[in-house]
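# nightly structure sweep
# worker-07 picked up a monomer target from the shared queue
# config: single-sequence mode, recycle default, output format = structure tokens
# input follows
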Amino acid sequence: MTNYRGNFLYGFIACGPYEVLPEWVFDKVFCPSVETDPITGEVKVAQVGLRRIESSLIQGGYKKEDVFMAHPEMLEKSIGPDTKVVGINVMDPLGMAPVTTTMSPEKLSYVAMKFKKMCANIIQLKKKYDFKVVVGGNGAWELAKSDRMKIHGIDTVVVGEADELAVDLFQDLEKNDAPELMHCFVRNLENIPVIEGPTINSLIEAMRGCGRGCDFCDVNKRSKKDLPLDRLKHEAKVNLDYGFDSIWLHSDEMLLYGCDNRDFIPNRDAIVDLWKGLKGLGANFIGTTHMTFSAVAADPTLMQQISQVNEQDKTGRWLATNLGIETVSPAMVKKHLGVKTKPFAPEEWGSVVREGAKILNENHWFPAATIIIGWPDETPDDVQYTIDMMSDFREMDFRGLVAPLLYQDFSEKNSMHFGNLNEAQFTLFWKCWENNLRVINDIIPIILRNKTYGPPMKVFMYGILKAGTWAIMRYL
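# output follows
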């Protein structure tokens, strides 16, 4: 369980191959542990998803002292004869997600290695104390097969949102009466419990769902729900009272918060009020995990105003956020991206992305964008559209990363593998990394401003970033 040194982009590094760098480099440099009680193994901060389940159980009748937030590498301190159920939150347990399969082709990733180690430990503890194991989280789908569950000592896998049924599920697990696999969704916003404990990197959930309708995205299965400002203020204060100095809003499309129209034009007043309301609690800045280029381009003044609330122009602070490009081929956009381009037409998507990138950079936002390579129906002509976009990024001195992700099918049948890329697809892959390494070299001084780095670590980080970018380019 890590805080990624306060930089969510380090999560991409954790998707890299375990054998390339020693484990201590991952653990100490990029993915240090969250603060933990060394005697009990209790973590001081936890993933927001675990905090939701914690609140569900306590509000549903479990005693607070009976719900324990344990560090996955200190389970022998936390688990004992009174343990009835162990719940695990996973993001990418087997390394099957697009980022990991792209960065660690045919190799064991760091995150998958950590999961295997934890499960091996749990299996031994389970033999001793006879408890049940339930797994949920965004990566639970990877474990939703009986053979995978058995190998990892798992009794139940929950795919979806467990807020409403957490109490019933844990009671059924205690009675040995829980199903092996569950698919579930939250029906009412009121049934999402308020968190009462601090979260990793002060991340709170502003929205669920997206409404954009991309056919490759699991998030599209959820209906869009906006959590009200008063509630977000409460959860933000929990984190600020713990000692965090900023708030990060998690959303699958932050600029649709409060959106009240079918054209997907951002509700500027609702979003600016949200930023001001949270900033007014004493936070240095408000960041967000995800937005879309179409929403950015639809209202350029919006990005300017929230950046002003954050005082990014005065402080010189840049904030990163994730955005999906996926493809700029008009034919592929029409077929796969749903209404991601709204309020613009699918044919305009390429220019929308370029304009959105420009607006973000002008307002001190650092895009961490994704594209998908290897769609089953993709032609070289489709790929060329995105190659041309990458060339334009170079000419406009784009400051941001573009992660080329190999297409992954949830059924695993049509997934792309690195060795199957055609010439056009490999060219696009290379163009993305050429951009990334140029940008990383340019922003090394900004990376090294991270307040968690001491002088020796800054020297070490400078060397590893320079050497790493050189090695990747030489490999490509």
